[in-house]
Design brief:
The protein is of the alpha+beta class. It contains three helices and six strands; from the N terminus they run ααββββαββ. The strands form two sheets. Strands 4-1-6-5 form a four-stranded mixed beta sheet. It has a two-stranded antiparallel sheet with strand order 2-3. A hairpin with a 2-residue loop joins strand 5 (about 100-105) and strand 6 (about 105-115). The longest helix has 13 residues, at about 75-85. The chain is elongated and about 55 Å long. It holds the Pfam family NUDIX. GO terms for molecular function: hydrolase activity. Keywords: Hydrolase.
């Protein structure tokens, strides 16, 4: 991530003189990013033998999950994110009372659980 941001900063003349502040900026950004809750969905096959996962930009595998946009509620965020990531409209499947929550460090994540055939 640092190399990517460095390349972007160097391409913008008005901010390239700030390159020495990049490590501190990235530390603060990562710290801020942990404060934003995320919402998504876990798709489990009817026989519980398969789950749907997506590959992230960093190469890791994850459930479809993302940060809430302004004006969204958690269910709307999950519906949007799943549609953006895998092209599925889950608006008629999601149930606000069927979910799991996790906390890793200071980051909260909520995932709706859906059984699909």
């Amino acid at each position: 991530m640092e190399e990517f941001v460095k390349t972007m900063v160097m391409a913008i003349p008005s901010v390239c003189n700030e390159i020495e502040n990049l490590p501190a900026f990235l530390r603060e950004w990562r710290k801020y990013k942990l404060t934003i809750p995320t919402y998504g969905a876990i798709f489990v096959s009817q026989d519980n033998s398969h789950v749907l996962m997506v590959k992230t930009y960093s190469g890791n595998w994850s459930f479809p999950i993302m940060k809430m946009e302004s004006g969204e509620n958690p269910e709307e965020c999950a519906v949007r994110e799943v549609f953006e990531e895998v092209g599925l409209d889950i608006s008629n499947l999601i149930k606000s009372d069927e979910y799991i929550e996790s906390k890793k460090e200071e980051k909260y994540s909520t995932l709706g659980i859906m059984n699909v055939s």
